[in-house]
Amino acid sequence: MESPVQLLNVLEWAYATGVGEQPRAPGPTGPPRVAGRPGPGLPGSPLTRGVPRQPGPREPGTREPGTPAASGSPIRPRPTGLVVVVLAPHDPMSRGQLRRMAELARDQGHEVRWEEARGGPTAPVATVGGLAGPLRRAHRIVIGDPFSRYVQLLLTITRARELVVVDDGTATMEFVAQLARGESLVRWHRRGSRGARDLLFAPVSASARRMLTPSDRRSVEVFTSFTSLPVEPPPGVQVRANDFAWTRSAFGPPRISRGTDLVGTSLVETGVVDPEHYLGAVAALARAHGATRYFAHRRESAEKLRRIADRTGLEVVRPELPLEIVARRGPVGGTVLSFPSTVVHTLPLALAGTGITVAVCDIDPVWLTEHASPRAEGFLSEVTDTARDVRRLPASPLSAP
Length: 401
Fold this sequence. Notes:
By secondary structure, this protein is α/β, with parallel strands linked by helices. The chain has twelve helices and 15 strands. Residues 18-78 are annotated as: Disordered.
């Protein structure tokens, strides 16, 4: 696992399939961090000018809080659950959410291995070497991101007869489509090959794609909340629906406020949407719908969030857990607005029965940058078109920066 959402969906898969212990009420996780002021129980939060300061690099010889002293060392081994391997990213917000999700995973009877897979030049060798034995012995492997080069490399080691792919956001839709068409696994927002590194890695990627194709020796399952996939999965790929039953059983029901919340995206950070158009759209949405809070995506830059707070007056919130859990715990607005993203598929499931409305604002093509992939416009439309139980909002009145 490389992201908090992937780990959340592993817990959902384990609950749906009966792996591990029965759900227990998670321990207190505290309120979400609110940018611009310390939240309750967070005196002295490291906040500055509307957004939290990013933690600096750790001193040599120190380790991630809540992780084993040595990379790859097991934590609280419990034979009833999964062994969850976290390939820790660099991004501080992702690391923080992953730490919190790792504690929830342990509470559910799963063992967690925290791998500093990107901790230096020798880290990949140490990580792959430490995981080679368990991967060869495993009968079943659950992965969170089939597009990840790290995951693709690890897939070349395993001999597992069962492979399960859990959601990594909207990328799951593109994964199924590319697998069905027999194409190379390339993220939807990339324009294609980037050069020599892609050519060198091509054999590994091709091997991973073969591993993810069902055969007489291997079954493949996709566990997804995207039940309205744009294409039929390849023959032999089993699709299991993720309805966020674990999240609903463990959290909530939420306290619902009278306000409206707006969910941010990383479309600017991935080079898909122009920053000025995005800022204009956020401001227009906030005015039109009376939004008061902006739930930041974990990859949104501090400078971008400062501009949003300064221009719109929105209270910028940096969630410490995936939004599905944060919204389920509450407080949450009676209406949640979003641009095309994973949450327009997942929040209606996590908030089922609460009466909360999830609305999605389409992306106007003029917002796209000149560097955006030719696939971007169609893919974002698919994200919205396949979403269920959401209200559609037009993009045209919001297109001016």
